[in-house]
Design brief:
With about 130 residues, the protein is α+β, with helices and mostly antiparallel strands. The protein is about 35% helix and about 15% strand. The chain is flat, with a radius of gyration of 23 Å.
Length: about 130
């Protein structure tokens, strides 16, 4: 068997990324720098549009005793398997550590189930002839 690496058809991500360095805008260090670059500006606009479309928040008047949870922009290059640039990605992330339990939030439960857990439970139900709803 000849692997892709042995055949010379597999290029490392670093090498592939270096071949297109002149075409890729560097990750910005500030919002101001990101907004000056059309690629990063478009990524920010796409993230903002997605947040609005998903109805992530409601704009309400700020109560005087309220703690405002702030956030930060993160930027990254999303790359294909061969290392070439797929797209520019901007993410708005809230700083949850500024929240206070009992004041800003009451519950922290998030119903997330890993696929491996679902497969294990279904396998167990099948082995024991349990009904599955």
């Amino acid at each position: 068997m000849v692997t892709r690496h042995a055949a010379g058809t597999l290029q490392s991500r670093a090498l592939a990324a270096m071949s297109g360095v002149s075409q890729v805008s560097p990750v910005p260090s500030s919002v101001r720098a990101a907004l000056l670059n059309p690629h990063w500006r478009r990524a920010i606009e796409e993230e903002y549009a997605a947040l609005l479309a998903n109805q992530t928040w409601d704009l309400v008047p700020r109560p005087s005793s309220a703690n405002v949870v702030t956030g930060k922009w993160f930027w990254t290059h999303k790359r294909r398997v061969d290392g070439t640039l797929e797209r520019y990605k901007a993410s708005w992330v809230l700083w949850g550590f500024t929240q206070r339990p009992g004041v800003d939030y009451d519950e922290t439960f998030s119903p997330v189930v890993k696929p491996v857990t679902v497969r294990a439970v279904l396998s167990l139900a099948l082995a024991r002839s349990w009904p599955v709803h």
